[in-house]
Each structure stands twice: as structure tokens, then as C-alpha cells.
Amino acid sequence: MSTTTTIGTARDKLDALWTRGRDFLGTELAVMGGAMTWVSDAGLVAAISNGGGFGVLACGAMTPEMLAQEIDATRALTAKPFGVNLITMHPQLDTLAAVCLDHGVHHVVLAGGLPPAPVIKQLKDGGAKVVCFAPALVLAKKLVRMGVDALVIEGMEAGGHIGPVATSVLAQEILPEIRDVPVFVAGGIGRGEAIVAYLELGAAGVQLGTRFVCATESRAHPNFKRAFIRASARDAMPSAQLDSRFPVIPVRALQNEGTRRFMDFQREVVERFNRGEVEQKDAQLEIEHFWAGALRRAVIDGDVENGSLMAGQSVGMVTREQPTADILAELVAQAEDALAGRYGHAKDSRTQEAGPALALAGAAG
Ligand SMILES: Cc1cc2nc3c(=O)[nH]c(=O)nc-3n(C[C@H](O)[C@H](O)[C@H](O)COP(=O)(O)O)c2cc1C
């Protein structure tokens, strides 16, 4: 004889799993839309926040005036919380931080290298929460000591600038050790099942970038979106370095004529250096400048042959242009299905027959 007992829906379970992330972000879903330079403008950021996630504006190389305008434009489109991503190498970093504070931005993500302690202090004193990227456990611990409020750990599956370690390994290395602040996992997440997996490993939430590029609200050029829709995981490759004397910061992007020319260009520069025609420092700068303006060329102008098509390996799971709200709803439905399947939680109703699944659900917390 079976009894009917309330054990909660899969959504209850999901909400319990990502409570810490939701509380930290002030959102319905603990899903951050990773800032993407040229892509994450007011339109996409507001759409992610309006869909229940947490949109993050990409400041990139914007001036303080441009950032102020973009924050105002975002606020005109959403009353929900959103954040701003600042690149630590920006020469006006402290002015940009001040713009965020003046405009009531409550969460600032500092990306692109170890953030300067005075900027962390400036933001925290101004009442903002500071989120930083931790590429290794030792740096995660250092950032927590420096007072950051949350961490993002991003694996090499991600689109854009990447480190050498896979998301799955970073998650195992860092999640069990860092308990003082919420940790969000990024890199290679394309479906809700993966979100559940990282939450169960101890993540407070997740951050996705690639999956939002083809959102209807994304300003990316139709050519850029088409390249994403056509691509499979193995088309998104890290930029290759030809010579160890001339380091190349790895950037994961879809292969195109530009990535092929980059190899030829490095070869040409190295040969000139070997012949004594150019100093090492100048040769290095020439290599670094090859990609200047290339992301804009691809995202805004639609030059998908010569521009930079930054994309993560989850690009293979981008199959069509979709409203942002649908992308978020799809991720949540997949997460719920995974939980319903695993623990026997009812997908839609709060009651279901008690049985072995109930014991499992209890064991899983
Ligand atoms: C086109 C593109 C541009 C990006 N620009 C930035 C950026 O300006 N700042 C940043 O912190 N991360 C940037 N990222 C990384 C994303 O914020 C996010 O962390 C990453 O896309 C997550 O991994 P996924 O691509 O596998 O979802 C970019 C990613 C892409 C695909």
C-alpha cells in the first residue's frame, strides 16, 4: 500500500540548491549572464535580468561617460538587479568604479587579472558587492582575504580569454575549499543538467556567456549569430602560440580566416626577429596588436572571416536564435527534469507517491 506525501517539486529542490546564489544576486534564478564585450549591452543585460537571471554589462574599453549612459539605458529597460563588469587593465578603473557607485550599481565584477586592493575597497566602501574571477585555489583564498564578496571560477571551455584548467577540475579544486563566499561556476555550461551538477558540487550559481549570444535581444550581427548556430564544440579553439619566446594569451574562438592568418603573422614576425630586423619587445607588441578591434569587427560589423569569433565549447548547443526568456526557461526546465529524474521530485505538483524516491530525496537534502 502506498501513501501520498508532500516532498516538494523539482523547482523547490532547485531553489534550495541555488538559494545562496539567488540571495547574493537578488534574483529568481542564480544564473549570471557573463559579460561579453560588444555583446552585453543594455538590451541583452535587461533581457537576462527581466527573465529572472542576472545580466552583467560589459564595460570593455568604454569611457566613464559611455558606461554611465549604458547603465542608465539598462535601468530604463529593467527594474531588476544587474551588474557591471570592469576590466582591471582599464586605465580609468577607479573612475569607472566611481561611475558604478554613483549610478547605484550593487554588484561589480572585476575581470582580467588580480584586482587592485584600493579598487576593491573603493567599491565596498561605496556599498557595492565585489565579484572576482579566481583561476586557482590559492588565488581564490587570496581574493577572499582581500574581502571580495563572491567568486566566479571559469574553466578553459569558456569563450573569450581563458586559463589552462577545465571547469570540472576547477570546481573540484575550489568548491569544497571556499565556503566563506558564494562561488559561481562558468565555462562550458549549455544545459540545465550541468547547472544542477555544479550546484550539487557546492556552487552557489552559474555564469553563462556563449549560450546568450544568439538571444533575440543580443545586438550581435546576424553573421555572428549564424556562425554560432552553425558551429560545433570542436570549432571553438584556443588561439595558438607559435613560439615560446612570444607568448600568446589564449582566447577561445571559432576558427576562421583570421585565426589562420594569425599563425602566418606570428611566423612572419618570428622570422623577422630571428633575422635581427625587430626587437623582441616590438615583435611581442606586433603579435598582441594583431587582434586589436577584431571582436568589434565580428560582433558589430559582421566580418566573421577576419574578426574574432570568441565562443565557448558550448556553442554546439546553440542551435537557433531564441528570446532570452526562452533560453532561461529551457535551462530551468532541463535542471528540473534532471532533479525530477534523479530524486523522484514531482515536476509540477507538490505531492507524489512516497516510495524509495522519497528516501533518496531526503538523503540529498
Ligand atoms: C564574445 C565573448 C566576449 C566576452 N567578453 C568578456 C568580457 O568582456 N569580460 C569578461 O569578464 N568575460 C568575457 N567573456 C566571458 C563571459 O563573460 C563568460 O564568463 C563565459 O562566456 C562563460 O563561458 P561560456 O562561454 O562557456 O558560457 C566573453 C565571452 C564571449 C563568448
Automatic annotation (TrEMBL):
<dbReference type="InterPro" id="IPR004136">
    <property type="entry name" value="NMO"/>
</dbReference>
<dbReference type="GO" id="GO:0018580">
    <property type="term" value="F:nitronate monooxygenase activity"/>
</dbReference>
<keyword id="KW-0560">Oxidoreductase</keyword>
<dbReference type="Pfam" id="PF03060">
    <property type="entry name" value="NMO"/>
</dbReference>
<protein>
    <submittedName>
        <fullName>Enoyl-[acyl-carrier protein] reductase II</fullName>
    </submittedName>
</protein>
<feature type="compositionally biased region" description="Low complexity">
    <location>
        <begin position="354"/>
        <end position="365"/>
    </location>
</feature>
<feature type="region of interest" description="Disordered">
    <location>
        <begin position="344"/>
        <end position="365"/>
    </location>
</feature>
<keyword id="KW-0288">FMN</keyword>
<keyword id="KW-0285">Flavoprotein</keyword>
<dbReference type="InterPro" id="IPR013785">
    <property type="entry name" value="Aldolase_TIM"/>
</dbReference>
